[in-house]
């Protein structure tokens, strides 16, 4: 619990709330020592969240040690334990790509900007993978623009309203620079880990390619304005992947663990036979192939 103007230790003064999640919340604070605004992630005082926070601090310090310029991943400034809450102090950045999309009425990013964001994302992931780290939770919510500044440009596409209407313009970030955040789920690569192209639903575990898969899904979302696979049901999710990208590779299906057997029949995905409803089948059928999906959104 906090109030605006409260002190978080003698060093930090609370200015406002920036976000909230299952882990706790993020507050905007004034750092009296460095005389700058910072973002402080305050983790819930529960054992599993505290352990995840300490793991994140370890990863952040490793990244900071190797990323001297702090150009790829968010920079940790400090951390402390306050009233049973792990508090992690970060540089203050702009909005997440998801928040920018949402405030822009889910209008797609310009393709040149998507390319530039993609380049930076791949550089960041390559940097992490060189350190034998796998992020595992890459998504638009965990990628922040460095600056909150934007410009408005005309946007007549698909609009039949008056040119005076705000829907006739869309926001474009002034600066394309991004940084990756949220390393609470980051895992270290281990010698005993299986080196297979991962599909978590099939029980094959995590490895480096899962981050690359996430980058691909993010880039499609930035191009289209919508999440690529909008489902929380595993079999439907796999069917959507096949619809967009083609049949799942046989080597993945053969290695699926026993918990994933229910999704596979006679060496292929049990679809549409295993669908839970007609609506589920329709949701899959309406998805275009990847190349058509990208062309349609440009």
Automatic annotation (TrEMBL):
Stated name of the protein: Uncharacterized protein
Organism: Smallanthus sonchifolius
């Amino acid at each position: 619990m906090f109030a605006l103007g409260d002190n978080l230790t003698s060093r930090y003064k609370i200015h406002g709330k920036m976000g909230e999640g299952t882990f706790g919340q993020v507050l905007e604070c004034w750092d009296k020592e460095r005389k700058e605004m910072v973002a402080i992630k305050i983790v819930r005082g529960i054992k599993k969240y505290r352990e995840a926070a300490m793991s994140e601090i370890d990863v952040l310090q490793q990244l900071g040690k190797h990323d001297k310029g702090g150009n790829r991943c968010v920079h940790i400034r400090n951390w402390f334990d306050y009233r049973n809450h792990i508090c992690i102090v970060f540089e203050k950045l702009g909005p997440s790509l998801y928040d920018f999309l949402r405030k822009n009425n889910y209008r797609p990013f310009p393709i040149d900007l998507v390319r530039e964001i993609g380049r930076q994302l791949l550089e960041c992931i390559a940097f992490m993978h060189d350190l034998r780290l796998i992020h595992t939770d890459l998504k638009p919510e965990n990628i922040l623009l460095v600056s909150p500044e934007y410009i408005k440009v005309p946007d007549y596409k698909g609009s039949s309203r008056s040119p005076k209407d705000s829907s006739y313009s869309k926001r474009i970030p002034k600066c394309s620079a991004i940084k990756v955040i949220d390393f609470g789920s980051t895992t270290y690569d281990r010698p005993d880990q299986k080196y297979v192209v991962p599909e978590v639903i099939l029980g094959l575990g995590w490895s480096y390619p899962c981050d690359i898969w996430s980058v691909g899904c993010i880039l499609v979302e930035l191009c289209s304005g919508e999440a690529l696979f909008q489902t929380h049901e595993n079999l439907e999710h796999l069917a959507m992947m096949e619809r967009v990208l083609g049949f799942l590779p046989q080597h993945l299906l053969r290695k699926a663990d026993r918990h994933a057997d229910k999704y596979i029949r006679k060496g292929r995905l049990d679809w549409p036979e295993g669908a839970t409803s007609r609506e589920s089948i329709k949701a899959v059928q309406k998805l275009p192939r990847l190349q058509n999906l990208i062309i349609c959104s440009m």
